Amino acid sequence: MRIDAHQHFWTYNTKDYGWIEDERIQRDFGPQDLKPLLEQHHIDGCVLVQVNQTEEETQHFHQIALENEIVKAVVGWTDLFSPALEERLQEYKKLPKVKGFRHIVQGEPVGFMKNPEFVKGVKLLGKYGFTYDILIYPTQMKDAVHLVRECPDVTFILDHLAKPYIREQKVQPWANYMKELGSFPNLYCKVSGMVTEAAKLWRREDFQIYMDFALASFGMERLMYGSDWPVCLSAADYSTQLALVEGNFNRHEGIFGLNAIKAYGIY
């Protein structure tokens, strides 16, 4: 089974999606838009990832997953600081397509992931068999090392290679932290989101060193492909961004499906 491990849906409005600056993606995107693209590229399903930090979106995405066979898993949002978190997770265990959670840590200050209450919340995800997607910038990678070290029983997925500075072709200290993060066996990494971090007129060669470091750090067994569609459309169409990753990893069955299935418990 081939899996796109990272994509989004939204009903566009300026209040909830003010961060979308590119007019090309200032519109609605749903499963009816993605399904033909997956079929065209012989991809069997996808992982639908949170956009807004609301419980309502998580519930809505789960319903979409129930109604659309292409959505194999949902990474939602819940308040990891809530004193009622354990009760909320018990309720989410009743939703079979909700496999994990994410917080938009890239929008938080450095040090956010070291907060003991946040760490406590993430540990509870492991207790209930949920994953946690790490969405950060390189300046927060040291904090990610702390979080993953503190939570050995949680399956983590690092989104978008921690958003390296591809536009500037800056590699360090990102590469050193990738090596350290890759040493944790409970952490996977998504080869995703690269084109939107690149210069407007990017070249295939711009990404090579970052994919090489990702492979050296995580190996074929803990990397997974994600399109970051429709966000990627601001820099490349679906076919182009997919070809970029396929050309580098030779359509490896782990990267293009099996690793995501294992990490998220897709069946």
Automatic annotation (TrEMBL):
Q: Which residues form the Amidohydrolase-related domain?
A: 3-266
Its domain of life? Bacteria
Molecular-function GO term, any one? hydrolase activity
SUPFAM superfamilies (UniProt xref): Metallo-dependent hydrolases
User: Could you tell me which InterPro entries the record lists for this protein?
Assistant: Amidohydro-rel, Metal_Hydrolase, Metallo-dep_Lactonases
Which family does the similarity line name?
Belongs to the metallo-dependent hydrolases superfamily.
What's the protein here called?
Amidohydrolase 2
The species this protein belongs to is: Leadbetterella byssophila (strain DSM 17132 / JCM 16389 / KACC 11308 / NBRC 106382 / 4M15)
The organism that produces this protein has a lineage beginning with: Bacteria, Pseudomonadati, Bacteroidota, Cytophagia, Cytophagales
